[in-house]
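Task card 7
Instruction: Convert sequence to structure tokens.
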Amino acid sequence: MLIGSGAVLGALIAVGTTVWADKEESLPAVQSEQISLPLQELRAFVEVFERVSHDYVDAIDDKKLLEGAISGMLSSLDPHSAYLPPTDFEEMEEHTKGEFGGLGMEVGMEDGFVKVISPIDDTPAQKAGIQSGDLIIRLGKEPVKGKTLSEAVKVMRGKPGTKLMLTIVRKGEDAPLKIEITRAVIKVKSLKQRLLKDNVGYARISQFQVRTGPDLVKAIETLEKENGKPLEGLVLDLRNNPGGVLNAAVQVSDAFLEDGLIVYTEGRIKNSKMRFEAEKGDIMNGKPIVVLINEGSASASEIVAGALQDQKRAIIAGRTSFGKGSVQTLLQLNNGAAIKVTTARYYTPSGRSIQAEGIKPDVDIELVKVEKVDKSALTNIKESDLAGHLENGDSEDEKSADDKVDKKSKAETELKTLLDKDFELNEALRLVKAMALAQQMVK
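Output:
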């Protein structure tokens, strides 16, 4: 049933009054907001609503129209603000618990397509080769264009074991790629650690969760016990880390700082202005740290990298990060839905805004493909290849003993394989070792 524009407009203003009253604003402030409402634009909205409701080729539910209008209002602000209907809000709450069914990647919207911010470690998306920056243009047979981010995410989620074909546009590829991914229960493990060479530790944070800060401290303590003495340096790997809990990023930064500012936020409302300071105590006792970042490092990752860079506590290596320096607040509505709205920007200790700029590394490490050289193709001839060469002179017993000493453990072999494949990690290790050596020379 259609109602007149004046009636709808009056109803909208009445609703606005109720919302403001719920926020406990004083009466004059409420009236001021009502007077400043763009009445001409509201009349245009009502007119469009009535035209679509009456003239659209199919009968359409008024509730759906209004939800679409709210969704459009928020999505037009920035890629991270969104309207979450009740079912989507429930799914988001499930996601924050750290276990859900899907593909395993952090996504946003760009030009109407789904953009991959970063794949999550040990998930179907990462194993299938999804990369940061990929644009998803089709989900199965459905085009992405025209869908909201919530609608696209709903398609990507599903029963574990079911398959979904993604059509992807990737920079550097001449044609779209088709990648089939099998959905799985996504269990996000926040932290991994291991020893590298020469008393250097490695900690990989894939996502910032509530326990990430304390877990990192325990991980470094575990590495030092395994090493038998304090670490001489640390590689902190934040590549393809899409972010997560703000307090976790603060705790991780604080673990390496004796004092000083970590991050602050600025926004229009009072609650959006926050400052986080470090407390005394550096778990690495001033030993060298290299933080690895790339184009998939976003949000909380950039807070950590920015804090340690500005406080001169670590060398940042890799490639410029994603540049998501905004704070989203989740506000539940009376109808069970919620809105996720951007309320502030992050700033590093020196006052740099992360938003749309990202963190620029101190040492650039280009994305390269490393291939092992086939030794059989080399023409180098050694002494042992010459006819009639003299033997080494060691007895068989000595050779046997040397063989036992020279045999690498499984862990060493795995480490060599990892460093051979991961050029960026190899470079980070070189940096840490050089910094540790320089530190020792100063002493």
